[in-house]
Amino acid sequence: MSLANGREYLAIPGPSVVPDRVLRAMHRAAPNIYIGELVEMTHGIVRDLRRVARTSHDVAMYICNGHGTWEASLSNTMSRGDKVLVLDTGQFGRGWGATAQGLGIEVEMLPGDSRKPVDLARLTEALRADGDHRIKGVLAVHVETSSSGRCDIAGVRRALDDAGHPALLFSDNIASLAVDEFHMDDWGVDVMVSASQKGLMVPPGMGFVFFSPRAARARETADLATPYWDWRLRARPEMFYQHFGGTAPTHHLYGLREALDMILDEEGLEAAWTRHAALARTIWAAVEAWGQGSDVALNMTDRAARSHSVTTIRMGEGQGDRLRAWLEAETGVTLGKPLGAEMPEASGIFRIGHMGHVNAHMVMGVLGAMQAGMIALDIPHGAGGLDAAAAVVAAG
Ligand SMILES: *Cc1c(COP(=O)(O)O)cnc(C)c1O
Q: Which residue among 249, 265, 281 closes a domain?
């Protein structure tokens, strides 16, 4: 007998839960790629991707995962020997920096703390220190999926402006698009990257790079651009083939169309942001109660710097690994592994993904399973976690 039999829940920070409706939209014969519905649909997808990003700028669509968009964002804007400043928020910030380095870009890291928000004063200082403006881009991760920290992207823009620095502002919204509030244009972001498999609720396989007119100008001199990643033709939906650099991701487009309808026209983007905020608070409330008199703790101590799409939890050495294994075997819930070598006691750390097609009963189910696991495994924890979570759900 196993209580894990039944519908499993992959509660990891991507790939996220794919709605049955999105799966059904994808379940079809290969569509005509020359004329008709698919071609027409692409125009609306571009318009709606802009709405989700709160931008009037261009978007290039790729058949790739998030890592591909990192490379696309840099190769279209940089030349060999250019320099970028990377905010070291954790695994993904450093990963983007490593991509830059691999392309031949010089990388300066702004040291960070994986439990604290980005130090904007220190950022301003680093930018002011770059008097001859060698830094061409600042790379910030909106939601750093390893730490579950959220970067104040508008604050990064202010730091650039305060320092009078012309570098392009890059934002990685792979984990956060359609989850955490974001305004590409109002916040002065030049290049934003995202992917299909997290807040957008579509299987992995599509990547998106949004770029401002300033970034488009940088493309004209960027010598790292290569044919596949060149964003110029991809930003023109009237050129359907060039848009995808070859065969279109036909079924993903149908899935994405359905997901965008759900987000924008049915729920509403702001309502989706609010739902994710409430679900995140539900998890925080449980963890804070469990943490009374125990080692259980949220990785991000500062509430304002916590993402609404993923939560990183610490439990003391070994306990995170034990809990994940138990939940998988006994409850049908899969939690996210720890990421980030900088984190001491990685075996005590795990993550819950709560982005996209997730609601209150799913979050309460994960929390209930976690409490059962802590009881079964004798992991010390404070009382009242589920009561605290239920109170947040009850308050709406
Ligand atoms: C998931 C993620 C990535 C990587 O995306 P892949 O599709 O796995 O390549 C990059 N950055 C952030 C913030 C992410 O959450």
A: 265
Domain holding 246: CATH number? Answer: 3.40.640.10
Domain co-membership, 327 together with 377: yes
Is 44 found in the same domain as 58? yes
User: Which ranges of the chain would DSSP assign to H, the alpha helix?
Assistant: 20-26, 37-53, 66-75, 91-102, 120-129, 153-162, 213-219, 240-244, 250-260, 269-290, 319-331, 360-376, 385-395
Instruction: Give the domain range for residue 48.
Output: 21-265
Q: Cα of 143 to ligand 1 centre, how many Å? A: 10
CA angle 358, 317, 150 (to 5 degrees): 40
Domain count, the chain: 2
> What's the one-letter identity of residue 107?
V
Residue closest via CA to ligand 1's atom 12 equals 174
Same domain, 228 and 288: no
- Report whether residue 67 contacts ligand 1, using a CB cutoff of 6 Å: yes
pLDDT by residue, tens only, the chain of 396 residues = 999 999 999 999 999 999 999 999 999 999 999 899 999 999 999 999 999 999 999 999 999 999 999 999 999 999 999 999 999 999 999 999 999 999 999 999 999 999 999 999 999 999 999 999 999 999 999 999 999 999 999 999 999 999 999 999 999 999 999 999 999 999 999 999 999 999 999 999 999 999 999 999 999 999 999 999 999 989 887 888 778 888 999 999 999 999 999 999 999 999 999 999 999 999 999 999 999 999 999 999 999 999 999 999 999 999 999 999 999 999 999 999 998 655 667 899 999 999 999 999 999 999 999 999 999 999 999 999 999 999 999 998
User: What's the pTM value of the predicted model, to 2 decimals?
Assistant: 0.98
